[in-house]
């Protein structure tokens, strides 16, 4: 197993370099640039000042030179300094934003698995029942509703009309004066809508995926044999069928790792949450190349890490994979 993991880790390095190269080229091929984004609306900006800025940021160098310098810094985990007016290191900005985004996405992922797996299992065991039909309609409705549109509806209903929940930020203005429980409650009220919306799309897909796996497993001969032996239905479903049906979920779980950061752009922007998604959006709008490359590199690393975890999970479950 260690040899298998080491082999996969070695393959991760060239893949990460390849992804970073493609991201770097696409970013520079996109229209606009950091100099234009910062000076186009400034009537005092001259061609000479723009040229000096371009030279200051090293953008006057050929692309292969710029990429080589960026890759050299990356070897020491240095993402460079942001092109924004504060000029802070990209690493510091990412460190500030990561905990918020991770908290929202871990909570939403936990909610997805906590709700979707029981719903999928019960729908499969009670196929054709009223519950199965209602859940099917709810799932397809969930697939059809755009997340950003639902977010606006929930903000209007729970934030504006009813006034139950805040609709922006992660804390109230009097947050520092609250006690420990008050701070937890305040943070929970601010995160409730973003977490529910982040989990909404995943609930529909995961429950259908679990239902499909369970329907396939409960038709297997060993499940029929377990029932023929007189085992209780709960034992047949949860001990024999569900364990095998959960195996493909390992892939979904692994592929969900990149969403811990990358899937936050929409709802963090809508709810004005100072997380990685909002930071990435601001970086793209201002053409902040070091910041964009830093976040894309972390996203690529998480993607590869997710695939590695999924493959290792499969190798643990099925020894034939690591021998192949």
| Overall morphology | globular
Helix-strand pattern: HHHHHHHHHHHHHHHH
- What is the mean predicted local confidence, pLDDT? 82
Structural class: mainly alpha
**Rg, alpha carbons:** 24 Å
Model regions low in confidence, pLDDT < 50 over at least 5 residues: none
Instruction: Please tally the helical runs, counting DSSP H or I stretches of 4 or more residues.
Output: 16
**Residues in helix, %:** over 70%
Query: Which oligomerization state do the chains in this entry correspond to?
Result: single chain
Sheet with most strands = none
Between the first and last Cα atoms, what is the distance in angstroms? 12 Å
Q: Which range does the strand content fall in?
A: under 5%
How many runs of DSSP E, i.e. beta strands?
Answer: 0
Structural topology:
Layout: H1 2-29, H2 34-39, H3 47-56, H4 63-74, H5 90-125, H6 130-144, H7 147-161, H8 180-217, H9 221-228, H10 233-245, H11 249-255, H12 259-262, H13 265-270, H14 276-285, H15 289-317, H16 319-323
Could you describe the 3D structure shown?
The protein is an all-alpha fold. Helix content is 75%, strand content 0%. It has helices spanning 2-29, 34-39, 47-56, 63-74, 90-125, 130-144, 147-161, 180-217, 221-228, 233-245, 249-255, 259-262, 265-270, 276-285, 289-317, 319-323. Helix 8 crosses helix 10. The longest helix is centred in the middle third of the chain and has 38 residues, at 180-217.
């Amino acid at each position: 197993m260690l040899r298998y993991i080491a082999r996969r880790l070695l393959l991760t390095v060239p893949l990460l370099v390849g992804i970073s190269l493609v991201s770097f080229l696409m970013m520079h091929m996109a229209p606009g640039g950091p100099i234009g984004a910062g000076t186009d609306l400034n009537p005092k900006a001259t061609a000479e000042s723009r040229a000096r800025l371009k030279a200051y940021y090293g953008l006057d160098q050929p692309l292969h030179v710029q990429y080589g310098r960026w890759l050299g810094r990356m070897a020491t985990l240095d993402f460079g300094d942001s092109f924004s007016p504060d000029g802070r290191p990209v690493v510091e900005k990412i460190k500030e934003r990561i905990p918020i985004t991770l908290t929202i996405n871990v909570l939403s992922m936990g909610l997805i698995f906590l709700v979707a797996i029981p719903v999928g299992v019960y729908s499969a065991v009670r196929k054709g029942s009223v519950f199965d039909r209602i859940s099917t309609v709810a799932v397809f409705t969930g697939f059809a509703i755009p997340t950003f549109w639902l977010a606006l509806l929930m903000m209007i209903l729970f934030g504006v009309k009813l006034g139950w929940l805040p609709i922006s930020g992660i804390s109230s203005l009097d947050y520092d004066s609250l006690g420990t429980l008050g701070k937890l409650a305040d943070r929970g009220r601010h995160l409730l809508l973003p977490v529910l919306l982040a989990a909404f799309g995943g609930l529909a897909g995961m429950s259908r995926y679990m239902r499909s796996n369970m329907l396939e497993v409960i038709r297997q001969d060993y499940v029929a044999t377990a029932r023929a032996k007189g085992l209780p239905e709960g034992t047949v479903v949860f001990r024999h069928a569900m364990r095998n049906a959960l195996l493909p979920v390992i892939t979904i779980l692994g592929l969900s790792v990149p969403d811990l950061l990358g899937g936050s752009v929409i709802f963090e922007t809508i709810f004005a949450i100072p997380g990685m998604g909002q930071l990435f959006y601001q970086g793209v709008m201002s053409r902040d190349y070091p910041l964009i490359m830093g976040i894309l590199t972390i996203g690529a690393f998480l993607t590869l890490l997710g695939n590695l975890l999924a493959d290792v999970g499969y190798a643990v479950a099925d020894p034939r994979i690591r021998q192949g």
